[in-house]
Structures are given as C-alpha cells and as structure tokens.
Amino acid sequence: MSLKKSILVIILVLLIDQISKVYIKTHFSLHEEAKVFDWFRIIFVENKGMAWGFELPGSYGKLVLTLFRLVAITGIGYWLYDSVRKNSPAILTFCIALIFAGAFGNIIDSVLYGILFGESTNIDIASFLPPEGGYESLFYGKVVDMIQFTFYDDLLPEWIPFWGGKHFSFFDPVFNIADSAISVGVFLLVIFNKKAFPKKEEE
C-alpha cells in the first residue's frame, strides 16, 4: 500500500475518532449514557492512563505516560515509513496505519484536551476553549472513551457450578475509535501474519 493511501487511512480514522470525542465531550456530562441496543451503550468516561484504566501514580506519572506515547508513536511512524519504502505487503502497511492512527488519536487527547476543554463533571458539560482556560495543562489531558459493548449482563443460570445464580457481565470496558483502530490493526496482523510477514524464499 502506498504512502498516500496509508496517510488517507490515518486521516480517516483520526477524523472519525476526534469528531466522536469532541461531540461526546461537548454534549455529554461525565458518566452520562445513551442506550443504542441492549448490548451497545454510549457512555462518556475519561481515562487518565492507558488501556483498561491503568495509570502511573502521581502527577509525573501522567507526564511520563504521555511522553512514552510520543516516543512509541515515533517508532510506529518510522515502521510505517520503512514498510512503505520496502514495498511491504499491503496488509502490513494497512495494519500499521491503523495502529499509528489509533495511537495518535489518543495522544491528541493526552497532549491537548486539557488546555482545549473545560472540566467535565456529572453535572456540567465541558465547553471548547472556555474563557477561564482548560481543565489541565499541556500533556495532562484525559482520553475520552464512549463505546461499550456489554454482550451479557444478567444472572448466570443456576446449573453453572460455583457461579450459578450470581450476576455476571461480559466485556465491560469502555473504549473509543482510536482503541478500536489499534485493536483491529493488531488483530489483523495476528490473523494474516504469514501474509504480512512473508518468509523470503531461500536461494
């Protein structure tokens, strides 16, 4: 896949990701939710750290995490450039473009959202470029998440040993488009590993 097509994939993912985040941030109060289907909800949460809510302790932990993301995306960007330069399989460059776009989308939140938006609370909806300034300084923004697919949220059947009759929910994490792009990119690399990384024929 050419560099132009890779850039197009990145721009498309970033647009969808950022438009959805800005809309949620400026139209939903924190933890407000909208049910789409029984198994699909839109719920606004903010993530201070990495995936699954992991975060480094202290104020410097957030800065270290953001700087690490910047270093990581630099490496991913070089990987993408090098793959295009070497005319690698299209599936490989496509997956790297997805991973790059997802990582970059969340970096935008971490680096800029703190100075671009007001604070989101359970009562107040954040505004864009508030007169009093943003809710945090540069590099200390929170990542906006809003998608939740809870495929099962009920009591387990009584016949199941140990857990029967207890409440159980499957796949509770709340994520965003950027997270989805990264997950899809990694998933495709695993599924199409042989096509993405073909072995050179022995001479």
SSE arrangement:
Blueprint: H1 3-27, E1 33-37, E2 40-47, H2 59-85, H3 90-116, E3 143-149, E4 152-155, E5 167-170, H4 177-191, H5 193-196
Helix pairs in contact: 1-3, 2-3, 3-4
Order of strands across the widest beta sheet? Answer: 1-2-3
What is the mean predicted local confidence, pLDDT?
90
The Rg value, from CA coordinates, equals: 20 Å
The separation of the N and C termini measures: 26 Å
Largest sheet: 3 strands, antiparallel
**In total, how many beta strands?**
5
User: Beta-sheet strand percentage?
Assistant: 5-15%
H/E element sequence: HEEHHEEEHH
Based on secondary structure, the structural category is alpha+beta
Q: Report low-confidence residues grouped into runs of 5 or more.
A: none
Helix percent band: 40-55%
Count of alpha and pi helical runs:
5
Described by the principal axes of the CA atoms, the overall outline is globular
